[in-house]
Amino acid sequence: MYQNNDKISISQITSILILTLVGTGILTLPQALAEEAATNGWIIIIVGTLSALLVAFLHSYIVKSFPGKGLFEILEATLGKPVAHIIGAIFSLYFIVINSFLLRIFGEVVKMFLLFRTPIEVIMFFMLATNIYLVRRGIETLARLAELLLPLILIPSLVLFLLTIQGTDFSNLLPVFQLSVGDIIKALPIVFFSFLGFDLILVFGRFVKPEKNISKAMAISILVVGLLYVFLNTITLARFGVEQTVHLIWPTLTIFKTIEFPGLFIENVEAIVMVLWVFIVFMSMAPLFLGATITLSNSMNIREHGFLALPLIPIIYFISLFPDSVTEAYYYLDYFTKFIATSIIVIIPLIIAMVIVFKRGIRKEDQGA
Amino acid sequence: MRNKRLIMLVLLMAATLLVGCWDQVEIDDRIFIAILGFDIAPEDLAENPGQSKYQLSISFPNQSGGLGGEVELTNVYLSSLGSNMHSILRQIGARTSKSIYFGHLRGLVLGEELAKDPRMIREILDAFENNPLISRRISIGIVEGKAKDIIEMEPQQEGDVGQYITRIFRKMDKSQRAPLMDIGEVLISLHNNGDVLIPRLVPDEKEIKTAGSAVIKNFALVGWLGEKETIAANMAAGKVDLIVIDIPFEEMLIPYNITDGRARYEIFHNKEDIIFKIEIDVEGDLEQMYLNAEEDLTDPKFINELQSQAEKKIKDMVEGTLVKLQKEFNSDALDISSYIQKYHPSLWKEIEEDWDEVYKNMNFEVVADVKIRRVGLSR
Question: Which of A218, B135, B137, B350 is the most exposed place for a label (fewest CB within 10 A)?
Answer without folding.
Answer: B350
